[in-house]
Design goal:
Elements: E1 3-11, E2 15-24, E3 27-37, E4 41-42, E5 45-46, H1 49-67, E6 70-71, E7 73-77, E8 84-93, H2 103-116, E9 125-136, E10 141-142, H3 144-147, E11 154-165, H4 166-179, E12 182-187, H5 189-197, H6 200-205, E13 207-212, E14 217-223, E15 226-233, H7 237-248, H8 252-262, E16 277-282, E17 287-292, H9 293-318, E18 328-331, H10 340-348, E19 352-354, H11 376-385, E20 394-395, H12 397-405, E21 414-415, E22 421-422, H13 426-434, E23 462-467, E24 472-478, H14 485-488
Parallel strand pairs: 1-7, 7-12, 13-18, 18-19
Antiparallel strand pairs: 1-2, 2-3, 4-5, 6-20, 8-11, 9-10, 9-11, 13-14, 14-15, 16-17, 16-23, 21-22, 23-24
Helix pairs in contact: 1-4, 5-11, 7-8, 7-9, 9-10
Length: 499
């Protein structure tokens, strides 16, 4: 059976993640996953395509060198913020009522719903995706599986349409062109994340999936196996780091690393950690500052409580607050914050667990980090893109070497209406995005997490020392924090559920 490759890019406000998978039949093997800091991306939207292309270009070059392949195109996640949902419907009269309804008629109905939905401003808005809610025939109303194989004079369908800014997607197009790759698929990531982390019983009985990223926290509600509601707020893990930076007068990198290594919610539950103090030494100036772990936790808890209350308000607005039998599943990079699940449970009363990519849906031997909560979007996009049997993003090394030996003449991209280079026509670009239909995910079992060392993006002149209120402890932690959160908070009583 012929193998093919899929590459995806998760564009976050604080990080960019490149993931590559080998697809053989229905088997998905993830062979590469790496993160790096992103730039000029705000609220998951690219606002400076030229500068945002730099990290992507470097990430692609690193992956090509390590895997000895050539990446020609990538599947990219659409922005998560400034997306609103609408209701659309479509109906067809069948020419042969005695024939069985087939998948082709369902697909045609979906296409009609997308093509006929009246956007308020087609020059500024674009349909990011659509989720079928129900189908009806002459005799009954049900799901897609219920109507396929039945007979009827007519067929109707109701859909949730997710509409976002067209400019935000065009900026992704420009960024990819500058990075030297084409757009394979534009994926509405909230549905992809659900496919990666939720179990079948959770989606059936009702669950709120909360993805806490760097700049955006999104909410997706599932009921009856279908995504029923989506909303987002412009706050996430980066807002917590900014609060630490402003309150303590640190730089961005130091604030982020302190949050990753020592950050926790609920200061009253820190137990023996509450009297610990961080001593931050500035080797260049010979000065130092003290930061109490309890005070750090108070800063973090205030912002987290604000985010949680905003999400709970959206849950109430959705009308599904009393139907979430499986509670809340928290995923994304912010899910790693110690005691955050306990704080959500205290504020909401729901059962809360951390959502990790489900192991039964893919294999990933020798691919570190792919089983963590922050990789959920990348795994979901891989699973979503793998449903297209004709998609192949990557040429093998032999093809790359042949191209290097006999290179084709270099041609400049054809400029678009704004004078920007374009690797493919504007009509093709709109088709890639507009015709994307979001599918209902399926799920599996949990994974057991492994402790992960915090990231350190660049060197610093600061050193951090553990002290108590009277005496400094001998352990010294560089800004990169060689210690891990799991080891430092063993005595905190953090009751987060394992994967």
């Amino acid at each position: 059976m012929q193998e093919r490759y899929i590459a995806t890019v998760d564009l976050g406000s604080s990080k960019l993640a490149l993931c590559v998978a080998k697809i053989i039949g229905e088997n998905v093997q993830i062979i590469y996953y790496k993160e790096r800091p992103s730039t000029h991306i705000r609220y998951s939207c690219v606002f400076n395509p030229k500068k945002a292309a730099g990290p992507l270009r470097a990430a692609i070059a690193e992956a090509e060198d390590e895997l000895q392949i050539k990446i020609l195109q990538v599947a990219v996640g659409l922005p998560r913020y400034n997306v609103h949902q609408e209701t659309a419907s479509a109906r067809i009269d069948r020419s042969d009522p005695s024939s069985l309804i087939g998948d082709d008629e369902i697909a045609a109905l979906k296409g009609i719903a997308l093509d006929t939905y009246p956007l308020s401003d087609s020059d500024k808005e674009l349909i990011y995706g659509a989720v079928p809610q129900s189908f009806s025939t002459d005799d009954f109303i049900g799901g897609e599986d219920d109507v396929v194989g039945s007979t009827s004079d007519s067929l109707s369908g109701n859909f949730k349409i997710f509409v976002g800014a067209k400019k935000a997607v065009k900026n992704i197009d420009i960024m990819l062109n500058d990075a030297g790759v084409a757009l394979a698929q534009a994926i509405f990531t909230p549905s992809a994340v659900g496919q990666a982390v939720l179990k079948d019983d959770e989606m059936t009985n009702g669950v709120a999936l909360v993805e806490m990223g760097g700049g955006v926290t999104s909410l997706s509600i599932y009921q009856g196996g279908i995504m029923r509601y989506y909303a987002s707020i412009p706050f996430g893990g980066k807002s917590i780091s900014t609060d630490i930076r402003l309150e303590c007068a640190f730089d961005d990198t130091l604030a982020e690393n302190i949050k990753l290594a020592f950050g926790a919610c609920l200061p009253d539950k820190l137990q023996t950690m509450s009297d610990k103090v961080l001593q931050i030494n500035d080797e260049e100036n010979g000065t130092y500052e003290h930061l109490g772990v309890k005070y750090l936790s108070e800063i973090i808890t205030s912002r987290c409580r604000e985010i949680i209350q905003a999400i709970l308000f959206l849950i109430q607005e959705s009308g599904f607050a009393d139907r979430l039998r499986c509670g809340i599943v928290l995923t994304g990079g912010g899910a790693n914050l110690a005691n955050l699940t306990n704080l959500i449970k205290e504020e909401s009363g729901y059962n809360v667990r951390v959502g990790f990519p489900l192991a039964r849906k893919f294999s990933s031997d020798g691919c570190p980090g792919i089983g963590e909560a922050e990789a959920a979007a990348s795994v979901g996009m891989i699973l979503e893109a793998s449903n297209d049997p004709f998609l192949n993003c990557i040429a093998e090394a032999s093809v790359k070497n042949e191209a290097e030996t006999n290179p084709e003449p270099v041609r400049d991209p054809e400029p678009d209406a704004n004078g920007q280079g374009n690797l493919f026509g504007s009509d093709d670009f709109d088709t890639v995005v507009k015709e994307k239909i979001v599918k209902t995910p399926s799920n599996g079992k949990k994974r057991t997490p492994k402790p992960k060392a915090p990231k350190n993006d660049k060197p610093s002149g600061f050193k951090i020392f553990w002290t108590n209120v009277e005496k400094k402890v001998g352990s010294v932690f560089e800004k990169g924090f060689e210690g891990t959160l799991a080891g430092l908070y063993d005595d905190m009583g953090n009751n987060n559920e394992e994967k």
